[in-house]
Specification:
465 residues; alpha+beta; 9-stranded mixed beta sheet; 15 strands
Length: 465
């Protein structure tokens, strides 16, 4: 054997390994899906699309796609990574079978999306119940509401895809609008709803915001006889949601809201004339006073008569970072931003910090793009709508896995790329004996103890609920 002259050991490579699993750590996803009943819910909801004499359950096919996206796939063919481990993930359909199912679901788009959403809310209800105090819905009330963040994002696509259109950033593709359940600073978030739109869709289209909010609310486990969450739910969005129609609809539903508000030159002049006593120090991310930033309420000095009753308007003034350019609405060297809310109680700085935490929604969108959203791989618009629903399910499954299996560990907040690198790509071998199949994870993997603890926790939760 020749001595290696490189920096890595010289090894002979051959394809002779047997019963080896490359994504064995993804067993956490399979066990979480079983624990929350997502497998059974999808199987039941998608039963109408089961062909006579078919071998593969449509619900299982969709769930296999969900797992493939969660471990890093971005097209239908990437399901082959799941297919390669039948001892862990069971029998997986062939690529043509998967493609045909997506085509059938797209051909009955409305019923198919309703079926998938029905399965999602059933699994979410069980997941939140199993999570207990770690659930985003635990202990919510009007003073500590469950937050639903709304935001849109651009997805680049080729021109031949149906309904792809020029975007406001002079690119080409789609402009989906999404909603996320915020898990707070100690967690990630769940994809509550997603609506696919052409690239030229309007940023502040009220009808689209109402639609995605309705879909998100339908994903909530009902807490009242009439199913209306009221002020226990806060809708949070940027200035794209600051339309009269959308805010009026939110008010009519009794929902709390916190929405970015566009400043005009007239409002900037009002801010410039505010007395110093109108201002209070702003908070930083740790809820402590921040130097160079302050907050004031404008409700009584700005005409809000055309807006819903009970709306309050706040402005934040902050010294811009070095090199930042001021806008025409900024005043006396201060960078101004505003938001509107119908929350009646709370310190000004606390309400402003709550609104500023909407930035977490951008993290959720970035994670969704790492979980299949960055690529809408199909030609037909309805097929890509089905794909977007599967992406949302993958985001949900990741969040449920972290909430149930990884609570109390820093992995509870890991983003998808880190989860894959540290947990899902752990290798293993399959052994059989005493009528049992064992998945032996690599003992050398740096984070194998986290994976083992997670599977044990999921097993304990299943046995006790």
């Amino acid at each position: 054997m020749r001595k290696s002259t490189g920096l890595f050991p010289a090894v002979h490579v051959e394809a002779s390994g047997q019963r080896v699993v490359s994504h064995a750590g993804a067993v956490l996803l399979a066990k979480a899906a079983t624990a929350v009943g997502l497998d059974r819910a999808l199987s039941e909801a998608l039963a109408p699309w089961m062909r006579p004499w078919a071998v593969h359950d449509p619900g299982k096919i969709v769930l296999d796609l969900v797992v493939s996206l969660a471990i890093g796939g971005d097209c239908l063919a990437d399901i082959d990574q799941v297919r390669a481990a039948p001892d862990v993930f069971g029998r997986v359909a062939s690529d043509p079978t998967v493609s045909r199912l997506v085509g059938r679901l797209a051909g009955d788009r409305d019923k198919a999306l309703d079926a998938i959403n029905t399965a999602r809310v059933a699994a979410r209800t069980r997941a939140w119940a199993m999570a207990g105090e770690n659930s985003p819905g635990h202990g919510i009330d009007p003073d500590h509401p469950l937050v639903i963040d709304l935001d849109a994002t651009l997805v680049t696509a080729h021109s031949e895809k149906e309904n792809a259109a020029p975007t406001y950033k002079r690119r080409f593709g789609f402009y989906p609008l999404m909603a996320f359940f915020d898990h707070g600073a100690d967690g990630t978030g769940e994809a509550a709803a997603a609506v696919l739109r052409p690239g030229n869709a309007g940023s502040n289209t009220a009808a689209d915001h109402i639609t995605v909010t309705k879909l998100a609310l339908a994903q909530l486990p009902s807490r009242s006889p009439d199913g209306r969450p009221g002020r226990e739910v806060l809708i949070r969005t940027d200035g794209a949601g600051a339309s009269h129609e959308f805010t009026a609809w939110l008010a009519s539903q009794g929902l709390s809201y916190s929405i970015g508000f566009g400043l005009t030159a007239g409002i900037a002049d009002i801010v410039d004339n505010l007395p110093e006593g109108a201002w209070t120090p702003a908070y930083d991310s740790e809820a402590t006073q921040r130097d160079g930033a302050k907050v004031a309420e404008l409700t009584h000095v700005v005409d809000l008569s055309s807006w819903p009753k009970g709306m309050r308007l706040f402005v934040r003034a902050e010294k811009p970072h070095p090199g930042a350019q001021l806008r025409f609405t900024d005043a006396n060297g201060w960078r101004l931003t505003a938001f509107a809310t119908n929350t009646e109680r709370g310190q000004h700085a606390a309400l402003e910090l709550r609104h500023r935490r909407r930035a977490r929604c951008e993290d959720r969108i970035r994670c969704a793009k790492d979980t299949g959203l960055a690529n809408l791989p199909l030609h037909d618009f309805t097929q890509n709508e089905i794909w977007l629903a599967i992406v949302a399910l993958a985001c949900d499954l990741l969040a449920w896995t972290q909430t149930l299996a990884l609570a109390g560990h820093e992995a509870r907040k890991w983003e998808p790329k880190r989860l894959r690198h540290r947990l899902f790509t752990i290798g293993a071998i399959i052994t059989r004996g005493a009528r049992r199949t064992r998945l032996r994870l690599s003992a050398q993997a740096p984070h194998v103890a986290v994976a083992i603890a997670g599977t044990d926790r999921l097993q304990t939760i299943r046995l006790t609920t």
